[in-house]
Amino acid sequence: MGNAWNELADYYQQPDNNKNEDILIGSIDCTNSPAGKALCARFKIMGLPTILYGDANFGGVYLEEYRGDKTFADFQQFASKELVPKCNAGNLDACAADDRVEIESYIAMGYRELEAKIKQVEQKEKETKVFYAAEFGKLQDKYNERLAEKTSYVTRVKDDVRMIKEVIALKG
After folding, report:
1. 27: Cβ contacts below 8 Å, ≥ 6 apart
2. Which of 37, 122, 138, 164 maximizes the CB count within 10 A of its CB?
């Protein structure tokens, strides 16, 4: 992986490949460097190598772990799709108009309003999960009913076939 990673870093050092200059390909020594160890602890890096990507604004809250293949071609393909400016509170210029309006409304809120909004959205999530669990339960009941009908029909057909074969054997 090291060679592919270094090749990707070299690729993005070229101005033609990093037009917005927002892409940084780097590495951190989590084993021998005190500063590296602290950074790895901050981002809860346990296994090595670990590749994090995303928006480093806000203390890295937007970073995610890369889990794809680790060849240069895979890295390059992933980077070309994912390492582009993303819409978030730290990068409103990358947002669609409706997303920007929503984020700006959150920015305008005070801490208590934001906490209340989080509770409201989490409650809606719980309600949605309960609703769909009930709906899936209804679907499961319907499936079980249809499966029982099918099983009963197949059993009757097999019994009929067995009976017909017995009659053929008696006539034979």
Report:
1. 5
2. 37
